[in-house]
Amino acid sequence: MKIGYILNTYPQPSQSFIRREIRALEAQGHEVLRFAMRPSAEKLVDAQDLSEAAKTEYVLSEGGATLARSVWETLRQDASGWAETLQAAWRLGAASEVGRLRHLIYLAEACFVAQRARAEGITHLHAHFGTNAATVAMLAHMLGDLPYSFTVHGPEEFDSPRALSLGTKIHHAAFTVAISQFGRSQLCRWAAPVDWARIKVVHCGIEPARFPAPAPFPKGPRRVVAIGRFVEQKGQLALIEALAQATAPLHLTLIGDGEMRPMIEARIKSLRLAERVTLTGWVDEARVKAELDNAHALVMPSFAEGLPMVVMEAMAAGRPIISTLIAGTPELVQDGTSGWLVPAGDADALAQALEKLVKAPLAKLEKMGAAARERVLARHDVAIEAAKLADHMRG
């Protein structure tokens, strides 16, 4: 197949799962064209992200004149179809939090994408996230009758399902993808029951070849790593509080960056944890792997999630997980077998889990890490999941 991927901002350091999915489809013989509305505002440090950026066509970078010509040519070729799509964009804008004007811009983007899709012979459009990328995909479908689908990750889409018109997007899509059974259940809340059968579960995937035999657990004081954007939903502040409560020797490495970094740094300083916490900023995949190899567990203290890729990668690296009991995480992490699950936002429970990690003998951590690795490799092989996605597209 020839597939058009529609994305808002791509590539981004926190979205390597999209890159892996695209490359798995390409490895299976499909051609994938990448359309992003804009490039990432964050500095790209991973060579694979830089390579993806070079392959991506940025819609807004085409400029207003090009988008205006796309609108005019679409209107000239099918005035009635364009008018119906305009009405749809107007209705979506009325229900949204960003307004009608923004949706008129989405319509212009859809005109451009639809024209490029026809010119390239694309047979299916697929968007990631139920936000503006899915809006552009739906409008492009209405303009050219090209089938589309989109993957919903959460948690952002579940925060504003009505404002994003998720039910409308699901209804018009050939199918909709959830990344966990929990995610599918949330989509069913906002979709008409007649559309439930077209809501599929396709997991985000890892590349097993990138995870050979796990590195031995390091000796000495316990070390944990947390990876993610420094934003409120990731719960790093709760993790800092938990670390302050943990009495046993323990070192935390925080990988990532974001708007809450000054607040996190200030809290580390106020709790006198500077010698026990390392902040790395964003790093490439090789450094992430090295940090996982040097850790005894991954900690994911999030308040809201979809199903984090970093959890999958840490499990594939043979490391236990300390995570919160939210969203799709319990479908992957088994409490007491491959890690510890705690209530979200409960710093006391998180501190207790850290204490359990410190007190557990290395033999127990190795057993938990092996169980984690076995489970994630069985459930999240990117080649298998990409083949599922392609089968849905054919269908």
Write a concise keyword list for the protein shown above.
single chain, 395 residues, alpha/beta, Rossmann fold, 2 domains, seven-stranded parallel beta sheet, six-stranded parallel beta sheet, 17 helices, 49% helix, elongated, Glyco_trans_4-like_N, Glycosyltransferase involved in cell wall bisynthesis, Glycosyltransferase_grp1, transferase
What does this structure look like?
With 395 residues, the protein is of the alpha/beta class. The chain folds into 2 domains: 2-205 and 381-394, Rossmann fold (3-Layer(aba) Sandwich), CATH 3.40.50; 210-379, Glycogen Phosphorylase B (Rossmann fold). It is 49% helix and 16% strand. It has 17 helices and 13 strands. A 7-stranded parallel sheet has the order 3-2-1-4-5-6-7, sandwiched between helices. It has a 6-stranded parallel sheet with strand order 10-9-8-11-12-13, sandwiched between helices. Strand 12 (321-324), helix 14 (329-332) and strand 13 (339-342) form a beta-alpha-beta unit. The model has no long low-confidence stretch (mean pLDDT 95).
Say what the CATH topology of the largest domain is: Rossmann fold
Q: DSSP helix count?
A: 17
Terminal-residue CA separation: 12 Å
What strand line-up does the widest sheet have? 3-2-1-4-5-6-7
Low-pLDDT stretches are none
Strand fraction band? 15-25%
